[in-house]
Amino acid sequence: MADPHRSERPRTAEERAAFRAWVRAHHPDVGGDPEEFAAGLRSFRRPARHGRAAVSVVRRRRWPASAVSRWRRRRRRARVLR
């Protein structure tokens, strides 16, 4: 599944180095402003294309939990009927 915060093209080594240098300089743990840091992260993570990134929802089966709970319900029902 694609990360919604990343752009389609991979970042170059220079872009990654610039981002790491910016983080080291502005991180709140080293005295940077937390609001400015959060705004800067949002601008770095914004996808290159316009608009929001598409979010894909993946539905997963609940196996084997659904089978176990179904078996438990049936056993309880059978116990009541005896």
Topology:
Elements: H1 13-26, H2 34-45, H3 65-81
Which terms summarize this structure?
82 residues; mainly alpha
Summarize the model shown:
The protein has 82 residues and is an all-alpha fold. It has helices at residues 13-26, 34-45, 65-81.
Explain how this protein is built:
The structure is a single chain. The protein has one domain (13-49, 58-81). Helices cover 52% and strands 0% of the residues. The protein has three helices and no strands.
Distance between the termini: 50 Å
- Give the rounded overall mean pLDDT: 78
Count every beta strand, where a strand is a DSSP E run of 2 or more residues.
Answer: 0
Low-confidence stretches: none
Proportion in helices: 40-55%
Count of separate structural domains: 1
Organism: Actinomadura yumaensis
Protein name: DUF3040 domain-containing protein
